[in-house]
Amino acid sequence: MIGKTISHYRVLERLGEGGMGVVYKAKDTRLKRTVALKFLPQEFLCDSEAKARFVHEAQAASALNHPNITTIHEIDEFESQMFIVMEYCEGKTLKKIVEKETLSVKKVLDIGIQVCEGLTTAHEKEIVHRDIKSDNIMLTPRGQVKIMDFGLAKLKGVSKLTKTGTTLGTAQYMSPEQAQGKEVDHRSDIFSFGVVLYEMITGQLSFKGEHEAAIIYSIINETPEPLARFKANVPEGLQRIVNKALKKDRSTRYQSASEVIADLKGLQKETTIGVMAKPKKKLLPFIVPGSIVFIIVRR
Predict the structure, then answer these.
(1) What is the mean pLDDT of residues 161-169?
(2) 3 state SS for the chain
(3) Active site residue 110
(4) Which pTM was predicted?
(5) What is the pLDDT of residues 92-109, one digit of tens each?
(6) What CATH topology corresponds to 5-87?
(7) Which of 13, 79, 85, 143 lies most in the core, judged by the most C-beta atoms within 10 Å?
């Protein structure tokens, strides 16, 4: 594939692969811009449901226009290969960042607010992502969040593409209702965001297991260990936000991403004021005959 020209896109390099597509970096030879091409895997080309879901992704994401959501330019087909043309984003996935870096509370709040701002726009358009996870969140070198991969998105008004009782998504990030194969709404994304928030703070997944059934049992029945178990000096407010996002009963969970934003911004303000209010050191001269000695006092 690398080096080939698909329609008017010259494929440059492979970026990654997921359950619903292989992604390549490419050059748009008409508009002279770098883009990302997501191809439907070969094994799904004869699968009408997979092709319908692939088109569905393009429809869902193209309905969204927000700086924290990857832009979809078009969907096309070339020599029986279906592909989506997307905005190319430089940076790293949140998963890779968390694996190598301990994030400060300040950075966690900033990233969390941006993710929820993107989700707010999607939910206002009645689109549920259904696969929010750290692998689907990109952070650019400038610190801008980009939510990617609407391959499992649920768009109101589009016919259901899966049978009742089946599960879609990544097990560790599923909401309890999603893990049980129930109908999901925007509050499922909020639960998944809670898992991502927990992961950003602790470097750990909130629900674990040796196999998928064990993970699903944990999601439905168990409470994650406190944040303080993994990270010192975590604000109580942050623990409260995580707890509310991860409520098993969606009626007691945050009811909208905008509610999460309000609490994250409130905590952001509190922590900023707390830093500014810390005692400062000041040097005062202390006169000793024949010399000057400085002593440190706190105020």
Answers:
(1) 46
(2) CCCCEECCEEEEEEEEEECCEEEEEEEECCCCEEEEEEECCHHHCCCHHHHHHHHHHHHHHHCCCCCCECCEEEEEEECCEEEEEEECCCCEEHHHHHHHCCCCHHHHHHHHHHHHHHHHHHHHCCEECCCCCHHHEEECCCCCEEECCCCCCEECCCCCCCCCCCCCCCHHHCCHHHHCCCCCCHHHHHHHHHHHHHHHHHCCCCCCCCCHHHHHHHHHHCCCCCHHHCCCCCCHHHHHHHHHHCCCCCCCCCCCHHHHHHHHHHHHHHHHHHHHCCCCEEEEEEEECCEEEEEEEEC
(3) no
(4) 0.82
(5) 999 999 999 999 999 999
(6) Phosphorylase Kinase; domain 1 (3.30.200)
(7) 85
